[in-house]
């Protein structure tokens, strides 16, 4: 639809949703196995009970290290991480196909773009990445996908509240048609 606002604009227009709401949602006993976004993050514990996948639990714990973090910021961080891994993979493939020696790869990545290089990362991570870039970026993408799903679920809960609240707060000014 031509009149629809792009998805990220619509999500950004929601009131800030703290990442703590994701935990509250999960703690409320929401059936994760029946949630279309989170069903793939459900495993089974030693007693055969549904449990959050360890990667999802680790990402959730990481999100809570910043008390002011919002679901929208987590979504943008996840998309950025996925984008950086995708571009880095494409650049590395082109550089290797062009005959660049492995010893020069990190230096060339740093020269091309700060987000492709490892200036902000620690040297141990850079060494591990050089040993197996596909595995390292694959792990980053998995973590980012979990972050993206958790963030989207938190934002979706806020949108569901806005759509179903019988007395929504007034919005500034003009009435516009909205899509979910």
Topology:
Layout lengths: L6 H7 L6 H8 L14 E3 L5 E3 L1 H10 L7 H27 L4 H11 L10 H9 L1 H32 L16
Antiparallel strand pairs: 1-2
Please bin the fraction of helical residues. Answer: 55-70%
| Bulk shape | globular
Question: Strand order within the widest sheet?
Answer: 1-2
Total domain count: 1
Number of strands: 2
Average pLDDT, all residues: 81
- The proportion of residues in beta strands is under 5%
How does the helix and strand content classify structurally? mainly alpha
Q: How would you spell out the order of helices and strands? A: HHEEHHHHH
Biggest β-sheet, characterized?
A: 2 strands, antiparallel
Distance between the termini: 13 Å
Runs in which pLDDT lies below 50 for 5 or more consecutive residues are 171-178
General description of the model:
- With 180 residues, the chain is mainly alpha-helical.
- It has one domain (14-163).
- The chain is 58% helix and 3% strand.
- It has helices at residues 7-13, 20-27, 54-63, 71-97, 102-112, 123-131, 133-164; strands spanning 42-44, 50-52.
- A hairpin with a 5-residue loop joins strand 1 (42-44) and strand 2 (50-52).
- Helix 3 packs across helix 7, helix 4 (71-97) runs antiparallel to helix 7 (133-164) and helix 6 packs across helix 7 (133-164).
- The longest helix is centred in the C-terminal third of the chain and has 32 residues, at 133-164.
- The two termini are 13 Å apart.
